[in-house]
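Worked example

This section walks through a single chain of length 283. The input is the sequence exactly as stored; nothing has been trimmed or padded.
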Amino acid sequence: MRAELSPSQVEQLAALRRAVGELGSVVLGLSGGVDSTLLAKVCADELGKRALAVIAVSPSLPTREQAAARDLAAEIGIAWREVATGEVDDPRYAANTGNRCYFCKHELFSRMVAIAAEEGYQALAYGENADDAGDHRPGRVAAREQHVCAPLAQAGLAKEDVRALARHLDLPVADKPAFACLASRVPVGHEVTPDKLAQVERAETALWDLGFDHRVRVRHHDTIARIEVPCELLAAVVDRAEAVAEAVRAAGFEHATLDLAGYRRGGGIATGAGTALPLARQG
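Given that input, the structure is written out below as tokens.
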């Protein structure tokens, strides 16, 4: 049985379908998160072969997430294409100032613009929702500059509305936690490099393989890994401290610490953080 929608959410879904249908044809970004997956589903329903999902391939994105996006596109039934993006080669991105996301989105949208121009698609779209307007989102500037529309936001969908519609449409990512790119694990002002991104990905993948969910974050502080998990999982990490520390050191870090403040969005923005607990005796 499909999940029930409130009357306002029924109207939002109808508004979303209208907004997508009016695009005529579209190239959209698909990351595999709930926002872009809902958008891809509605584009597939309303536009069929006139919709193309672009999946970015980049060192800043975990290979596991890229594979999940491919599987979702196939399940939804939307045409999709992987496109290599080169934001990590841009020194402005690598400098990791507060507008790093602008250069990432600009690179992706530029690739989408080229595809649309070469193949005759009428519009570009991405999965921004109405709640994102209140966040620091340099990528929105890139979207505006390159005329990339945000149908979810246009239909007034907040994050919880997006999840409700995703459940209603039986999308498997309806309750998937938000997942920022790997570069968000490097404190602002510290250079982002492919080696650092690969190191973070190895560490987080190892922790996922130990059974911790996608809310785990490994913040990169040179030789130190600062692990963030939701507060309810702190005890579980401590209970498995030796295995966690071993996994993180195998990824290339010298020290593994646990941030006692727990997981929080934007935990990589500042160099400083909450109190850190070493997870194993060092030296």
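What to look for: The chain has eleven helices and nine strands.
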